[in-house]
Design goal:
Structural class: alpha/beta
Strand order of the largest sheet: 5-6-4-1-7-11-12-10
Radius of gyration: 22 Å
Shape: globular
Number of strands: 17
Helix content: 25-40%
Distance between the termini: 31 Å
Oligomer: single chain
Largest sheet: 8 strands, mixed
Length: 375
């Protein structure tokens, strides 16, 4: 197999999990962090722009506050995050500073990437840091996020950040060295997969669960991240972060799985639509609408068979084929109540039902992103 190289990528986002950064009893793994900073310094020297998505605030705060392994109440987790964020930011600043690199902390909540205006603001801030030759260190704002408004895992957050910033590559440093045909801890016959050309349902079926109580994700969330990243033209690598200098380990040819970017990536405004983590609703369409969408046309009400969810005009909704596969996402032109009323109607019939002259398309093609699916 050809050795993977990070040196050809101009902008790289690296996701670091809690279990890699924090020892349950001793706190921050400073030697490991220093080795990763060495890697980041080397890649920066080679001309790459680097972004870091770092978990670890709650885990680090737990050790500083002596909270042990007990289950934490929401307010205890948020307090731990508040303490941990300061320590974590300082540790990254020191580690990167030893290579002459500046760093800046960015704390995001779900709305910062899902709401268009906040998405643009976050992108502008991170872009400015990169222009100033600083390394953005990004984490979910666990001091204020609750279960209803959180990403839930930093794999998908990393994918959102990578696509928002137009990164060429997303590296997920994990407790496993890549994708296998089954979870290797459960199936000794599982075989390693070095290259994934496209994330298909068969690939998704190989995912397991999280391997550590410090981790919120697992292979499932990594594949979700892969779908977001590759659809926007960002390659993704999953590799073991447990070894020292984990990025240079990729250069040395140690095991890693590469997910190739889509041959037809979405760009610009549509990257934001395609990467929405949770659609506000779902529209199930007929086969005729599927063919129309795959040929680049808008979604008309006539092709909609079922409307579900409580969405407002302008929200992102998923479009499902008759067999339940998601084939597209887009910004819907109608509130849910009106969408239900006009589903299945021809354009000429809409005004009589709604009582006003309305848009002909349920989702206009300019506001629609078709998934990388086979026609």
């Amino acid at each position: 197999m050809t050795t993977l190289s990070l040196k050809k990528y101009r902008r790289i986002a690296v996701k670091v999990g809690s279990a890699l950064l924090v020892d349950r009893s001793k706190g921050l793994k400073r030697d490991w962090l220093a080795s990763l900073a060495d890697d980041i310094g080397a890649l920066t020297e080679g001309g790459a722009e680097m972004l870091v998505v770092s978990s670890g605030a709650i885990a680090l705060g737990r050790t500083i506050l002596g909270l042990g392994r007990k289950a934490l109440k929401l307010e205890e987790s948020q307090a731990a995050a508040a303490v941990g964020q300061i320590a974590l930011a300082g540790a990254w600043s020191d580690a990167l500073g030893s290579h002459g690199l500046k760093s800046g902390q960015i704390l995001l909540t779900l709305g910062d990437t899902e709401e268009r205006r906040r998405y643009l603001n976050a992108r502008a801030t991170i872009s400015t840091l990169l222009k100033m030759k600083a390394v953005p260190v990004i984490n979910e704002n666990d001091t204020v996020a609750t279960s209803e408004i959180r990403y839930g895992d930093n794999d998908r957050l990393a994918a959102r950040v990578a696509t928002m910033m137009g990164a060429d590559l997303l590296v997920l440093l994990s407790d496993i060295d890549g994708l296998y045909t089954a979870p290797p801890a459960l199936d000794p016959k599982a075989t390693f997969i070095p290259l994934v050309a496209r994330i298909t349902p068969d690939i998704e079926a190989m995912a397991g669960a999280a391997a550590s109580e410090l981790s919120r994700g697992g292979m499932r969330t990594k594949l979700d991240a892969g779908k977001i990243a590759t659809a926007a033209g960002t390659a993704m690598i999953i590799t073991a972060g447990t070894r020292q200098s984990p990025l240079m380990a990729i250069e040395r040819g140690e095991r890693a799985t590469l997910f190739k970017p889509s041959n037809h990536p979405v760009k610009g405004y549509k990257t934001w639509i395609a990467g929405q983590l949770e659609p506000a609703g779902r529209l199930t369409v007929d086969e005729g609408a599927v063919k129309a969408l795959l040929s680049g046309k808008s979604l008309l009400p006539a092709g909609v068979k079922l409307v579900s969810g409580n969405f407002a005009r302008g929200d992102t909704v998923a479009i499902l084929s008759p067999d339940g596969r998601e084939i597209a996402r887009g910004l819907v032109a109608y509130d849910a109540a009106d969408a239900v009323r006009i589903a299945g109607l021809k354009t000429a019939e809409i005004e009589a039902v709604l009582g006003y002259e309305a848009r002909s398309a349920m989702i206009h093609r300019d506001d629609l992103v078709v998934s990388d699916v086979d026609a």
